[in-house]
């Protein structure tokens, strides 16, 4: 009993003491990991809230509206697959599908061909190269805005620049925006004019082609076309695939330029005579002009499925024409 206080004193002296110069005990890894995760979620919370409120929520609501009769004023009424059956039986809907497919099949390849051709020219060392790159890329910075569509409509209207140029060469075709057969060509010209974004991507891909391959081809006596076909095109095929995929998806989403160039509001949206009636434009007409929001939602989901199928086909086809370096796939 007499040695108990001394034993307790020695035990207290043996305990580690944390003074001002003693490093603190390291925190538990699990606790530190939870704190880091919490901080990450706090920084991500604005994006998560925006995704749930502005993307996921509206998508879920539109999926429900696709099976209802909804006109923005009355409560939605469940009608099952009636919207889809009305859609497939609508001649204007089938016309909008044909116009959109024509625009995608014609506009996308022409835009990519122009972008690749200009990229090949700009990849060569020449004086003023930076200026030319900036000048060709400038239209893509503007984007498919309403102001550009208004100016484009004025350029291709009656007695405007294009019409006067045609008459100077003896072609009296009139304004393109007033002709149901020519208005779609003005939209193709607009998308081709904005080839700057894929051009820059092509330029980046051309810079990655090893110069040794071209030197070996020169030794073998290969011409320009053969070098392009056997060296340049296979080496930039991943970049080409990326541009094809991106521009195809963008072509399906065309709206503002078709709506403005085609006539805008006032009962002549995407005209004349539905000449520029692309899919998204007819979706707008059904949803906001005809107040058939349920049918418009069904059309939107049908467009999503179509774009997903086209994307799957492109990914499936890349095995045949896209060449990756070892380990790059």
TrEMBL record:
The keyword Membrane applies. GO terms for biological process: transmembrane transport. Residues 97-314 form the ABC transmembrane type-1 domain. It is a multi-pass membrane protein. Residues 10-20 have a biased composition (Basic and acidic residues). One of its GO terms (cellular component) is plasma membrane. PROSITE patterns: ABC_TM1. InterPro entries: ABC_transporter_permease (IPR051393), MetI-like (IPR000515), MetI-like_sf (IPR035906). It is found in: Cell membrane. Gene3D superfamilies: MetI-like (1.10.3720.10). Keywords: Cell membrane, Membrane, Transmembrane, Transmembrane helix, Transport. The chain crosses the membrane at residues 38-67, 101-122, 134-155, 182-206, 227-246, 293-315. Belongs to the binding-protein-dependent transport system permease family. This is Transport system membrane protein. It comes from Streptomyces gancidicus BKS 13-15.
């Amino acid at each position: 009993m007499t040695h108990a206080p001394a034993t307790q004193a020695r035990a207290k002296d043996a305990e580690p003491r944390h003074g001002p110069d003693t490093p603190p005990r390291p925190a538990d890894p699990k606790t530190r990991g939870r704190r880091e995760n919490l901080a990450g979620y706090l920084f991500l919370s604005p994006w998560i809230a925006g995704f749930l409120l502005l993307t996921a929520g509206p998508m879920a609501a539109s999926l429900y509206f696709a099976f209802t009769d909804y006109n923005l004023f009355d409560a939605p009424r469940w009608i099952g697959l009636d919207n889809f059956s009305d859609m497939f039986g609508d001649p204007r809907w089938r016309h909008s599908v044909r116009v959109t497919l024509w625009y995608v099949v014609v506009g996308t390849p022409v835009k990519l061909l122009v972008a690749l051709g200009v990229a090949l020219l700009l990849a060569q060392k020449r004086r003023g190269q930076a200026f030319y790159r900036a000048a060709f890329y400038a239209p893509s910075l503007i984007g498919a805005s309403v102001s550009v569509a208004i100016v484009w409509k004025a350029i291709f209207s009656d007695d405007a620049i294009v019409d006067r140029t045609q008459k100077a060469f003896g072609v009296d075709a009139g304004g393109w925006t007033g002709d149901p057969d020519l208005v779609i060509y003005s939209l193709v010209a607009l998308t081709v004019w904005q080839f700057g974004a894929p051009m820059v991507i092509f330029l980046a891909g051309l810079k990655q082609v090893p110069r040794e391959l071209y030197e070996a081809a020169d030794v073998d006596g290969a011409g320009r076309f053969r070098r392009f076909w056997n060296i340049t095109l296979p080496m930039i095929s991943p970049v080409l695939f990326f541009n094809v995929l991106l521009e195809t998806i963008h072509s399906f989403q065309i709206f503002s330029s078709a709506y403005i160039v085609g006539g805008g509001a006032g009962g002549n949206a995407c005209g004349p005579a539905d000449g520029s009636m692309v899919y998204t434009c007819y979706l707008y007409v059904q949803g906001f002009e005809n107040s058939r929001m349920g049918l418009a939602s069904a059309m939107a989901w049908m467009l999503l499925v179509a774009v997903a199928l086209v994307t799957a086909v492109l990914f499936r086809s890349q095995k045949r024409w896209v060449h990756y370096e070892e380990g790059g796939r």
